[in-house]
Write a structure and sequence with these properties.
Blueprint lengths: L5 E8 L3 H12 L4 E4 L43 H14 L4 E2 L4 E6 L4 E5 L2 E10 L21 E4 L14 E4 L3 H10 L5 E5 L12 H17 L16 H9 L4 E3 L3 E3 L2 E3 L5 E3 L2 E4 L24 E2 L2 E2 L5 E3 L13 H20 L1
Parallel strand pairs: 1-2, 1-6, 2-3, 6-17, 7-14, 8-9, 8-14, 9-10
Antiparallel strand pairs: 4-5, 5-6, 11-12, 12-13, 15-16
Bound molecules: flavin-adenine dinucleotide.
Flavin-adenine dinucleotide binds next to α1.
Length: 354
Amino acid sequence: MSEAPRPVDVLVIGGGQAGLAAGYYLRRAKADFVILDAQDAPGGAWRHAWPSLRLFSPAQYSSLPGRMMPVPADGGYPSAADTVAYLTDYEHRYALPIVRPTTVHAVRRGHERLLVETDHGTWHARVVISATGTWWRPHVPHYPGIRDFRGEQLHTTGYRGPEPFAGKHVLIVGGANSAAQILAEVSTVTGTTWATLRPPRLLPDEVDGRALFDLATRRHRAALTGEATTGIGGLGDIVAIPAVREARDRGVLKAEPMFSRIIPEGVAWRDGSALSCDVIIWCTGFRPTLGHLTPLRLRGPDGIIPTEGTRVLGESGLYLLGYGDWTGPASATLIGAGRTAKGTVTEIMRQLEV
Ligand code: FAD
């Protein structure tokens, strides 16, 4: 006989930074809640990032509510491991009720509650916050010939460091921070080419993630008030962390416009010439991990789930947290996740009082 669904007021799916930020405010509001996380240890996507990854934001600007991320011993930008250590400490410090490893397979409508089906039984929740991130759905754009390439192709998620590529020509695709950081270190061991859709924008040395967050906040306020904003860049612009500066000074940060197709031995450019390469690293981003919401049939014709703030328009007991600007300004960053979680939990607590 299967067990009866376990009741809970608020169920958070995902125990990465967005889920923890929600947990912090739910704990403060004395809510009845649980966080289900598919990983077997804390840290969310940061556990899987390549070891040399550096945040583009300093520790003071990479913190969740309540507790500052410690500044690394070398005074520089935190690494992925520093971030995992911080998130591990965070969830213990606030004694967040996280159940892991537990994977949510499906969320369905039940009688006045949402049914959350997992690999360890079913939950019955009044409100669900989905905070499952994007790392689990890497995006590689389709180019003609992509299946015929005879070399190796990998996405950012499969990158562990430059060593395996020594002696091979590596094509790096993508115009944001991941591409620039990976290019910076692969180019220290071998020949590289960089291809981007638009000319990449390298920020001045004195501008780092903190200025971008300030700008994202100003843009958000301006969107609410209808004012115009100006500023130096956006979260997709490249922060000149030391490794990137060093690569710029070596002259390797020169981007080519995108190729038109992939050929077995490399890529063909729009002018008809070709580049031979052994490896293509796709630093081409991610899509939201939302497969568990499929049974609710929430997607609009454009494939997007419509939201007002973080609340899903077609399902009043469902919130989306941390996926990108469409679920809160800079919500897919450490500092932005906290700001968005605060408003979301306030709204949820009001909803639960009714
Ligand atoms: P995640 O960290 O992915 O956590 C989601 C959790 O949900 C995971 O533990 C996952 O296992 C779990 N999950 C997924 N599906 C299910 C399911 N069905 N059931 C149960 N659990 C599930 N941000 C910054 O602030 N500064 C930076 O410098 C910065 N650099 C970045 C560099 C790179 C290369 C990338 C990719 C991102 C960077 N970000 C940065 C952005 C952002 O901080 C991260 O993407 C962050 O990991 C997002 O956190 P999250 O909690 O939304 O998702």
